[in-house]
Amino acid sequence: MNLIKELPSPDRPREKLLQWGPHILSNAELLAVLLRTGTQGKSAIFLAEELLNATTGFHGINGLLHATANEMDKIKGLGPAKQAELMAVMELAKRALAEQLRTRPLFDTPATVKQYLQIHLAHKSHEVFAVLFLDAQNRLIALEEMFRGTLNQTSVYPREVLVRALHHNTGSVVFAHNHPSGVVKPSKADEQLTHSLKSSLALIDVKVLDHIIVGPGESFSMAESGLI
Predict the structure, then answer these.
(1) Cα(77)–Cα(73) distance, rounded to whole angstroms?
(2) Each residue of 99-142: pLDDT tens digit?
(3) Do residues 111 and 203 share a domain?
(4) Are residues 86 and 111 located together in one domain of the fold?
(5) pLDDT at position 153, please?
(6) What is the reported pLDDT for 1?
(7) Distances from the Cα of 96 to the Cαs of 33, 48, 101, 206, in angstroms?
(8) Which one of 57, 91, 125 terminates a domain?
(9) Helical (H) or strand (E) element with 84
(10) Predicted confidence (pLDDT) per residue in 73-95, tens digit
(11) Are 139 and 40 found together in one domain?
């Protein structure tokens, strides 16, 4: 049987992590540390490789951590305990990034903003329009998914965005939406919507700092590209 305990000590992922640090481990090895055990005839590393494989599993780490309980149930060897651990890791990642954005201005952590949006939006199969509501120091108050649509169209109502901005006593906002197709370049409709919302929010003295479009593994900032 191919078991982790039968591997030489330097080849065991937990021992490697403790001795050299997590950065030295592959994705499969890191996942194996979480899984701890495999199934009959399969080590935790072998199971981890299957889970990350596009054919037998979830198309990599991002796909696995965004998988639903129903999707995980279909994988032999991924029982309730392992599912719970993976879902807990994902939630901790979300909360860690949110903490950074609540304590530091978004301008100080543009990469963190994109990571945060990747976790929340990139995996969705339908289009979602979200708003990050910020305080006067450009720190995160809340992220709200306000509108959702089909794969190619979302209806966004400026009045509802204004209502939520007033509710949060918002100083500024960042818009975000996902492109399930994976193409993150904004359309003309995206640009028109951004400018329409910017004009509406100016009436209540709320600034629009950015509109970020998210796809699996990549993001596009309208502000960085000079479109706002």
Answers:
(1) 9
(2) 888 888 887 878 888 989 998 898 888 899 999 999 999 999 99
(3) yes
(4) no
(5) 54
(6) 41
(7) 21, 24, 9, 27
(8) 91
(9) helix 80-103
(10) 888 888 888 888 888 988 888 88
(11) no
- In which domain, by residue range, is 160 found? 105-221
- On the question of pLDDT at 8 being above 60, the answer is no
pLDDT on residue 41: 77
Q: Is 8 helix (H, G, I), strand (E, B) or coil?
A: coil
Query: What average pLDDT does this structure show over 146-163?
Result: 81
Residue 7 · residue 19 · CB < 8 Å: no
Regarding whether 136 and 45 lie in a shared domain, the answer is no
Q: Which of 48, 26, 25, 49 shows the shortest CA–CA distance to 37?
A: 48
Residues 6+ apart with CB under 8 A from 152: 127, 181
Specify if 99 maps to a domain. Answer: no
Helix (H), strand (E) counts: the chain: 9, 5
Q: Of 132, 137, 93, 131, nearest to 115 (Cα)?
A: 93
**What pLDDT does 2 receive?**
44
- Contact at 8 Å (CB) between 177 and 214? yes
Q: Name the domain boundary from 39, 59, 91.
A: 91
